[in-house]
Amino acid sequence: MKKRIVILGAGYAGILTAKKLAKQFKKQTDISLTIIDKNSYHTMLTELHEVAANRVEEESIRVSLQKIFAGRRIDVVLDTIRTIDYTGQVLTGDHGTYPYDYLILASGSQPAFYGIPGAAEHSLKLWSYTDAVKLKEHVIHTFTCAMNEADPAVRRRLLTFCVCGAGFTGVEMAGELAEWVPTLCEHYEIKRSEVRIVEVDLLDRVIPVLSPKLSAKALRRLVKMGVEVILKTSVCKVGPDFIELERDGVCERLDTASVIWTAGTQGSDIALASTDLKQVGRGRLQTDAYLRAEGHENVYVAGDNTFLVPEGSAVPVPQMVENCEHAAKNIARNLQVAVTGQGQLTPYKPAFHGVMVSIGGRYGVAHVGAEGKRISLPSFLAMFTKHFINIIYFLQLLGWNKVFSYMKHEFFTVRKCRSFVGGHFSNRTPSFLLVPLRMFLGFIWLFEGIKKIGEGWLESPKLVLFFRGANQFFEGIINGTAGTDVTAGATGAVADGQVLINWDILGFLKIILVQAGDVALKIQFSLMDWFRDTVIYASGNTQIFFQVVIVLSEIIIGLLLLGGLFTTLSSAYSIVLQALFVMTTGLYMGTWWMAFAAFALIIGGGRTFGCDYYVIPWLKERWRKFRWVRKLYLYHD
Ligand SMILES: Cc1cc2nc3c(=O)[nH]c(=O)nc-3n(C[C@H](O)[C@H](O)[C@H](O)COP(=O)(O)OP(=O)(O)OC[C@H]3O[C@@H](n4cnc5c(N)ncnc54)[C@H](O)[C@@H]3O)c2cc1C
Predict the structure, then answer these.
(1) Is 494 in the pocket of ligand 1 (CB under 6 A)?
(2) How many angstroms separate the alpha carbon of residue 330 from the centre of ligand 1?
(3) N or C: which end of the chain has fewer CB within 10 A?
């Protein structure tokens, strides 16, 4: 009989574990894998604030489970699990029952309201894709209402936003909102001074997981962005249009239409309801050293659901993504042992590498490094590291597809320069403006190719003469003796010239820039010289072969660019050819533009008034139909 492994929850921990298990057991047909989630997509919770404050598109934080598991032997089930019978080994959801031999519980967390009256009913949450979208729509709605509101008190209430909690989630949300507000003010013609963003926390500093110095830095940034941070203050009540705050025994009411709750977490409903398992605190499940629920050897607990103080550590594992990544590896390894009965279980000993927090898209703080050796990073590096870490996760999640869409959303289409690299990568040139450049570059390549046919390039060997002539030209100028024209092969002597640059880099790369009438550049690369001397110079026939390749390449690139077909490939090949020329004969300044033009055309140059407009969408559709393409995520949407 088949061994059934069921993973509950397609969050960070569930997805990574499922992918590892699918790879590990891909040939073992006696093992079935099922992943169950109440959503048909995986949500990037760590980026919720970016959607909530309209920095990135909604779809950027939602990844289809069908896409993630395409081509893998795993059943993806859409259902909400209501109960788990740990004795009978079965999960029951709204749409079915799911027996298991091994269960991986990865159902994550949810906000905790600590019984504060009205908090659950009246505050906006930030714990799911729909929460983020709702929050964004709510903010836009309040500004829309405020724009037409003449009553100052109502207007003030509409334009007051209160973020409860100054942990990393709250600070990220408040920072992001503060960054968005100037755009909203401009759009709805509201003065920035009318908008209040208040952040409240019970503790005496923001983001307590950071060092006090970094907390202070984060606080300064929030204040600079116009956030009022109120510390050592608790929330006593939340209503539909107010929040009550208590400080030093004094209660104060703040009128606001927007209470955003980021003040605490507890286990998911299903974790809280798992009373058969040992619970610690608010719905975290005690595990043994192998991440198995205490007393239940066939139930593994992953991600935020886990409560474990690993050997050698003084604190429980953090409820963070890095814990999910480490746990996924450990559980996959231990399940292999459990299922096959071979090998030894490995205790969970994760090493964590710190925290990175963005305060808006342009600024970040980070405390990173090995345990006990953490360092603080300056803002630019903190943001760079945060994006880099995200990219590593996305590579595991959905390969190139997600990396591409992440870069697109975070850098190439970012609005209002809300990125740590500003808007430099997101300015768009309409591609129809590139059409003349594409046609001209295509024409020049075609012309060059046809000209070479006229010069006999398809008939007799010419490369030795051509390359040697070019070498003599550069050496002649460097050594102060008469050289040869760079483009004219052995003919056309040049009387004198001037060396502008002659750099020898580590003995294998030389950059030479000379002036002899026009300016000429040569990059001498020892590997290329070796290839030229041993392969190209080998015989007359090899020279003719390479000449034919060059002529055909020039003509084909020319035709493709003229027709706007495969423009990306032909532009890239155009750059490669120019690189080969600069490393063999060198290039006069008059032709350098061809390399830069090819760079300009490489993305989208043929998308208008060219065949790519029709051909690329057609090809994309067919390309995605290959199973291995979907499995390796070698496409983008
Ligand atoms: C706004 C925000 C910002 C954050 N920022 C960071 C950050 O910058 N860095 C960091 O390391 N961590 C961050 N975190 C924490 C991080 O997101 C969590 O540690 C991580 O998501 C935990 O992963 P998980 O797989 O355990 O749970 P989740 O990612 O929450 O996934 C749980 C899954 O289980 C599913 N599920 C739950 N119950 C059921 C049920 N009954 N039936 C079916 N499906 C169910 C859910 O739909 C969900 O898909 C942030 C969290 C939030 C909310």
Answers:
(1) no
(2) 19
(3) N
- Ranking 160-164, 333-337, 443-447, 466-470 by mean pLDDT, the lowest is 466-470
Residue 52 CB–ligand 1 contact under 6 Å: no
91-95, 283-287, 343-347, 425-429: segment of lowest average pLDDT = 425-429
Query: Which residues lie closer than 8 Å to 42 by C-beta, 6 or more apart?
Result: 10, 11, 15, 62, 63, 65, 68, 397
| Domains identified in the chain, total number | 3
Give the side-chain half-sphere CA count within 13 A for 324. 28
Return the ligand 1 atom nearest residue 126 CA.
1
Q: Does 497 share its domain with 591?
A: yes
Q: Which atom of ligand 1 is nearest to the CA of 321?
A: 11
Q: What's the CA-to-centroid distance between 74 and ligand 1, angstroms?
A: 21
Helix (H) or strand (E) holding 521: strand 518-525
User: Is position 168 within any domain?
Assistant: yes
Q: Which atom of ligand 1 is nearest to the CA of 109?
A: 30
CATH number at residue 151: 3.50.50.100
With cut-offs at 50, 70 and 90, classify the pLDDT of residue 604: confident
Cα separation, 130 vs 389, in Å, equals 25
**401 shares its domain with 439:** no
261 lines ligand 1 (CB under 6 A): no
In a domain, 569, yes or no: yes
Whether the CB of 127 sits within 6 Å of ligand 1? yes
Q: Name the H helices within 53-128.
A: 65-68, 119-122
Place of tokens 């209040």: 196
Statement to judge: residues 245 and 280 lie in one domain? no
Does 273 lie in the same domain as 163?
no
Q: Is 111 in the pocket of ligand 1 (CB under 6 A)?
A: no
Q: Is 534 exposed, middle or buried (0-12, 13-18, 19+ CB in 10 A)?
A: exposed
The pLDDT tens digits of the residues spanning 377-387 come to 999 999 999 99
pLDDT in tens, 552-579: 999 999 999 999 999 999 999 999 999 9
Confidence (pLDDT) at 485: 53
Q: What is the pLDDT of residue 489?
A: 47
State whether 140 and 247 are in the same domain: yes
Q: Under 8 Å CB-to-CB from 469, ≥6 apart: which residues?
A: 484, 485, 486, 488, 489, 490, 491
Query: Is 64 part of any domain?
Result: no
pLDDT per position as a tens digit, 473-520: 999 899 887 555 555 444 444 557 899 999 999 888 999 999 988 899
Atom 4 (ligand 1): residue with closest C-alpha? 46
Q: Is residue 87 part of a domain?
A: yes
| 277 and 396 fall within a common domain | no
CA of 283 to the centre of ligand 1 (A): 14
- Rounded to the nearest angstrom, the distance between the alpha carbon of 207 and the centre of ligand 1 is 19
What amino acid is encoded at 506 in this protein? L
% of the chain residues with pLDDT over 90: 91
Cβ atoms 21, 334 nearer than 8 A: no
Share of the chain above pLDDT 70, in %: 98
Is 15 near ligand 1, meaning CB less than 6 Å away? Answer: no
CB 229 within 8 A of CB 76: no
Q: What is the CATH number of the domain that holds 30?
A: 3.50.50.60
Name the residue range of residue 297's domain.
3-38+79-111+267-346
Looking at every residue in the chain, the average pLDDT score rounds to 94
pLDDT number for residue 491 = 44
Same domain, 467 and 601: yes
